[in-house]
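Postdoc handover notes: sequence design on the structure in folder B. Input tokens:
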């Protein structure tokens, strides 16, 4: 198959190239795309050298799958063109996620949504949303979810290579032009990811609310999110409080989570997942599973995943695999 990666020089794009190899995706032809700034750059992949180029008319002709991770503006302009030229587009940006004609897919949760592609585009959800819905789905299947309240602790790599560089420079006591964060991130936590709307919610929080409802096909589900940037290089952590229609025992909840594909329940006397311990893994790790002390139908748990892998590249490659099947 012929695969194109738009954003191949970025944090997500480079991880996609690793994941394609690890999962033995049968890529016979590879096209690496980025901005004009990177055009001409040589990248080695599977013992061969590839030249990065900027996309142009005809770039996606003959391409089977186009993996996009170059920001929403590029996805808006190049997505429909790539689809017109015959590629199936799997897009990591927020550009198409809430379009009713574009499936928003986490394969373990709603692969059935891949049945029809009116636009030829499939959207990969927001990173913290992906790991949260993987953990919510088995709870929903077991006892029907009626409400979700979440707080996230999101690493700087969620803001791409610039986010990582900013933390590195601040820790080294150096300044850096063009930080993607509204405050200093080293030694700090910032309860703002994206812009605020008039009601006081940030764009990242709205993504978690709207995308969770779409992926779970629960358009009226009450969801509230507080998204926080933390000075961690890689890996997002998400605290979830979930109310169910039927009361679930702790054992039932643990069993439902542990038997779901892609989840590792990590508990025990001193056991709980952290971003450092779960970096470079493709699974979603769940720990600290507790029943609310006052509300019997409410569970609390802690969910950690590598945002560049399950939160982006791995999920996109899993979508490609599901389509290829
Ligand atoms: N980081 C995450 O955890 C995460 C998770 C889920 C989704 N996403 C989404 O994935 C996308 C990429 O994120 P990232 O973290 O990989 O960002 P990044 O490290 O900043 O990489 C951005 C990529 O886009 C390319 N690009 C920028 N402007 C371009 C243009 N005009 N034409 C073609 N290519 C262009 C860059 O190429 P140059 O090197 O040439 O500039 C680079 O390859 C974003 O939409 C982001 O929202 C990210």
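Designed sequence:
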């Amino acid at each position: 198959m012929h695969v194109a990666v738009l954003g191949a020089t970025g944090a997500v794009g480079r991880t996609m190239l690793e994941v394609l190899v690890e999962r033995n995706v049968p890529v016979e032809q590879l096209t690496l795309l980025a901005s004009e700034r990177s055009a001409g750059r040589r990248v080695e992949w599977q013992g061969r050298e590839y030249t990065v180029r900027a996309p142009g008319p005809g770039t996606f002709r003959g391409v089977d799958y186009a993996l996009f991770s170059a920001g929403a503006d590029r996805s808006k302009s190049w997505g429909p063109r790539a689809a017109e030229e015959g590629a199936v587009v799997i897009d990591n940006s927020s550009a198409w996620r809430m379009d009713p004609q574009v499936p928003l897919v986490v394969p373990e949760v709603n692969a059935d949504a891949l049945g029809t592609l009116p636009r030829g585009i499939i959207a990969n959800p927001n990173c913290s949303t992906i790991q949260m819905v993987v953990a919510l789905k088995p709870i929903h299947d077991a006892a029907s979810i009626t409400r979700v309240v979440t707080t996230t602790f999101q690493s700087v790599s969620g803001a791409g290579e610039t986010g990582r560089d900013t933390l590195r420079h601040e820790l080294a006591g150096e300044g850096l032009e063009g930080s993607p964060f509204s405050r200093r991130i080293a030694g700090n936590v910032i309860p703002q990811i994206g812009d605020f709307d008039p009601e006081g919610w940030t764009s990242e929080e709205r993504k978690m609310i709207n995308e969770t409802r779409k992926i779970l096909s629960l358009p009226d589900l009450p969801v509230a999110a507080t998204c926080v940037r933390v000075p961690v290089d890689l890996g997002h952590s998400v605290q979830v409080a979930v109310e169910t229609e039927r009361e679930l025992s702790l054992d039932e909840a643990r069993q439902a989570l542990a038997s779901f594909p892609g989840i590792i329940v990590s508990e025990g006397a001193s056991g709980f997942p952290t971003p450092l311990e779960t970096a470079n893994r493709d699974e979603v790790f769940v720990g600290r599973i507790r029943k609310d002390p006052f509300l019997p139908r409410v569970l609390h748990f802690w969910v950690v995943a590598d945002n560049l892998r399950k939160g982006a590249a791995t999920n996109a490659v899993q979508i490609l695999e599901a389509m290829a099947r």
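Context for whoever picks this up: The radius of gyration is 20 Å. Don't rerun without checking with the PI first.
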